[in-house]
Specification:
single chain, mainly beta, Metal Binding Protein, Guanine Nucleotide Exchange Factor, Chain A, three-stranded antiparallel sheet, 9 strands, DUF427_sf, DUF427
Length: about 90
């Protein structure tokens, strides 16, 4: 699977985990140079507290377009160290 935004591959892996129709990519498959930490957080009742990254690709930013669970609840422990995308990021094979 590939995550693509602004004509760049942000992440690429054959080991994504699909949760609620979102592909979660192993953090080591994500190009760290495109990620910027944000102060945004949301809470999922069964996954826990999510944190977000803004994508910065070739000077163009996509605010809070990636999220992850730094310490997911037990039911979602399998997505520890995984990142998912939205907001126009295309996930394709």
């Amino acid at each position: 699977m590939k995550a693509i935004w602004n004509d760049q591959i942000i992440a690429e892996s054959n080991d994504t985990i699909v949760v609620e129709n979102n592909h979660y990519f192993p953090i080591e498959s994500v190009k760290a140079e495109y990620l910027e930490n944000t102060d945004t957080h949301t809470t999922c009742p069964w996954k826990g507290l999510a944190s977000y990254y803004t994508l910065n690709v070739d000077g163009k930013k996509n605010q809070d377009a990636a999220w992850y669970y730094p310490q997911p609840k037990e039911a979602a422990s399998h997505i520890t160290n995984y990142v998912a995308f939205w907001k126009g990021v295309k996930v394709t094979e």
